[in-house]
Design a protein that fits this description.
- The complex is a heterodimer of chains A (231) and B (189).
- Chain A is mainly alpha-helical and 231 residues long.
- Chain A folds into 2 domains: 1-59, no CATH class; 64-195, no CATH class.
- Chain A has 8 helices and no strands.
- Chain A starts with 11 loop residues before the first helix and ends with a helix.
- The model of chain A is unreliable at 1-49, 51-56 and 199-231 (pLDDT under 50).
- By secondary structure, chain B is mostly helical.
- In chain B, 73% of the residues lie in helices and 0% in strands.
- Mean pLDDT of chain B is 87; it is low at 1-5.
- The chains are: A mainly alpha (231), B mainly alpha (189).
- At the A-B interface, helix 4, helix 6 and helix 7 of A face helix 4, helix 8 and helix 9 of B.
């Protein structure tokens, strides 16, 4: 471990032992604690542990048990979410419940394999497209009958040639409307909360650095290094 | 009216009774836990108990929402928020009781308990919410003919009250936008 000089720092080293991915964070933490490491002048705030009294970063513990469990469980949970969404007309459930279950599968994967890795796998574009596209689809299905001279969401005016327009209009609202909105917004809330407050923690990740940023996040180097440790 | 209550009390099964005890205990633990992390975890257990209770009383749609949103997603988001903020290590496990607040809560509980004698028994076929021929029975009888789906809850949400559901969906969308604005970010990252 790289924190050999810091083992005497109150015995905190072995509490977080076995977490080689957090070496950099722990160094910064302990350095701020004993004030003898002027090189790492970063304040003690990214220890990475959930049960620490200092300000924390995104916690991630690489655990074989959690990763194996999630690998086995997540396909079934995701299929169940799809079933609840698509079979909402004939059994309990619907778009809201199914979308929440599918978003929860993404949370599971993020907790097992790291939030940063999941964030890069599931780009911001996907999350935004789900939320915005779902809202637009719901609005379009609702407004199309209005354009055809009916009322809002008057399903029997939907131009579906063979299928029953009422039943499949409702299914469309549930599946491409509500399920997409709920899963997209929940995943977005998860990712944005995991990242924290802008300017206090770290900026957007390198690939998605937005051109409108006004330099409010001066610790990009720290943020990138820390995220790199989580992969 | 007490005549309708005592058979219902007699019908409470062991599973129901243990679920009730579990829910009440976890609710009290959530309220009195001094440590925020412990409160969040116990609150997740409370939501899971409520989901089981909803399933037991044949409200599977509500149970699914409670299990997925309240036990799962909310717990995860609260844990993430805790990880992002400062958490103080406490020596005491439980919060000391605030007696004026406990008295106010007890009075509220007593006032609500008085009304319980007039609540119909669980599963009673005479309960107004069930036997009402103009609302519940109408939806149960007409949903399939009107919409072609068997799930009355979904038919009410997506068809009969579709405009309300559109408003709710937009509120969920707005919640995502609001989180971006509050956290002063422009991407979900």
């Amino acid at each position: 471990m790289s924190d050999a000089p810091d083992v005497d720092a109150g015995g905190r080293g072995d509490e977080s032992g076995g977490r080689d991915d957090a070496g950099g964070k722990r160094d910064a933490d302990d350095g701020g604690r004993d004030d003898d490491r002027s090189g790492s002048a970063d304040p003690p705030r990214r220890s990475g542990r959930l049960d620490s009294e200092t300000r924390q970063g995104t916690p991630y513990t690489e655990s074989q048990v959690i990763m194996s469990t999630v690998k086995v469980v997540s396909p079934f949970a995701f299929t169940y979410g799809l079933f609840v969404t698509f079979h909402g007309g004939g059994s309990p459930g619907g778009g809201f419940q199914g979308g929440a279950i599918m978003a929860a599968v993404v949370f599971m994967i993020a907790f097992a394999f790291g939030i940063e890795a999941t964030r890069q796998w599931l780009a911001n574009t996907v999350v935004v497209a789900l939320a915005v596209g779902g809202t637009l689809a719901f609005a379009a299905i609702g407004l199309l009958p209005v354009a055809l001279g009916g009322a809002f969401l008057q399903y029997d005016l939907l131009p579906l040639p063979i299928l029953d327009p009422v039943k499949y209009g409702m299914e469309a609202v549930e599946i491409i409307g509500i399920a997409a909105i709920v899963s997209g917004v929940l995943m977005g809330l998860f990712f944005v909360l995991a990242r924290g407050f802008n300017g206090e923690d770290s900026g957007p990740s390198i690939g998605e650095r937005d051109p409108f940023s006004d330099g409010e996040s001066p610790e990009d180097g720290d943020g990138v290094a820390t995220d790199g440790g989580e992969r | 009216m007490t005549g309708t209550v005592s058979p219902a009390v007699a019908q409470v099964t062991a599973i129901e009774a243990s679920l009730f005890v579990f829910v009440v205990l976890t609710a009290l633990a959530t309220a009195f836990a001094r440590d925020v992390l412990a409160a969040v975890i116990v609150f997740g257990a409370y939501s899971l108990g409520m989901a089981a209770l909803y399933t037991f009383y044949r409200a599977p749609d509500v149970a699914m929402t409670e299990a997925a949103i309240s036990a799962g997603v909310t717990t995860v988001l609260l844990l993430l928020t805790l990880a992002k903020t400062t958490r103080i290590d406490h020596e005491a496990v439980f919060e000391s009781v605030n007696y004026p607040a406990a008295g106010a809560a007890g009075l509220l509980f007593a006032g609500l308990a008085i009304t319980m004698v007039d609540v119909p028994a669980v599963g009673s076929p005479d309960a107004p919410v069930w036997s009402n021929p103009d609302v519940t029975q109408w939806y149960l009888a007409e949903t399939y003919a009107e919409t072609g789906v068997e799930n009355t809850v979904m038919a009410v949400l997506a068809a009969f009250r579709g405009f309300d559901t559109f408003g709710e969906a937009v509120v969920v969308f707005a919640a995502g936008i609001a989180a971006l604005i509050v956290l002063r970010r422009e991407v979900f990252a």
